[in-house]
Amino acid sequence: MWFNISAAPFLLTGFPGLGIFHPCISISFFVIYVSTLLGNGTILYLIREDHTLHQPMYYFVALLAATDLGVTLTTMPTVLGVLWLGHRAISQGACYFQSYLIHSLSIVESGVLLVMAYDRFIAIHSPLRYTSILTNARVVKIGLGVLMRGFILIVPIIITLSGFPYCGSHVLSHAFCLHQDVIKLACADITFNRLYPIVLVSLTGFLDSVLILISYILILNTVMGIASGKEQAKALNTCVSHISCVLVFYVTVTGLTLIHRFGKYVPHVVHIIMSYIYFLFPPFMNPIIYSIKTKQIRNGINRLLSLHRI
């Protein structure tokens, strides 16, 4: 086993000093969570049922929606438990597992956004070879590679995290378990757990963002070579949804990083709010973006709504 189930539980925290408002705040969170589940669930249902959406681009959209569902279902029980019911205790084993899922899915989401950029590059640079390059078998392999990268790379710090003694306070700063939050409570040498995440972020999030940027530089270079202005606009329009999702993800990541790194004098509640924005905003916005900006998905939603009216 990775962890000692009999060890004293950790205590989750909602919004310090705002305890009396927790029931009201929890209603807002509940609405956001339900909207996120419905939005991403609808995207997955449409892509599964609509054969016109059985294309590499939409398979990657489905993977993004599944990842967002995973993040939502991972954080929702403890967040609503703390805010709604005041249930703060979480066993160490459950805390490590939640932390593992949260950080793994964050890496997966970054990887999905990267492969979606690659998909757009192939579609614009080599449209006639698009389906022969991104075959179903290759899409499955890419998807498995993205998932394995996320779920394997995070294992070392979770294993070491579960082996540390926690002899002081067991109070965490959030309503869910984060590695950087739990590690502050350890009574041991945590050098590896401080350095490994830095290397991991550099090799995943930072590298992914650079490769996404390079992909769009190549896409722009290809588009500029198209003679027709109408065709240029049409090609770029297929990238709008993905660019929007990339901005939502990396702006929230950057904001959270800056707050944690340089926000020493920023009120603690701001740190907590930024953490919630990071985990709630992208999963909430992504299905909205694709529903509005992607004609095929928008048409699918309209057909689905018309069937329910009959």
UniProtKB/TrEMBL annotation:
GO terms for molecular function: G protein-coupled receptor activity; olfactory receptor activity. It is a multi-pass membrane protein. GO terms for biological process: cellular response to lipid. It comes from the Eukaryota. Coiled coil: none annotated. The gene is LOC122200744. GO terms for cellular component: plasma membrane. This is Olfactory receptor. Belongs to the G-protein coupled receptor 1 family. The keyword Cell membrane applies. It is found in: Cell membrane; Membrane. It comes from Panthera leo (Lion). Pfam families: 7tm_4 (PF13853). The lineage of its organism: Eukaryota, Metazoa, Chordata, Craniata, Vertebrata. Residues 39-290 form the G-protein coupled receptors family 1 profile domain. Its main location: membrane. Putative odorant or sperm cell receptor. InterPro entries: GPCR_Rhodpsn, GPCR_Rhodpsn_7TM, Olfact_rcpt, OR51/52/56-like. The keyword Transmembrane applies. The chain crosses the membrane at residues 20-47, 59-85, 97-118, 139-164, 198-223, 235-259, 265-285. Keywords: Cell membrane, G-protein coupled receptor, Membrane, Olfaction, Receptor, Sensory transduction, Transducer, Transmembrane, Transmembrane helix.
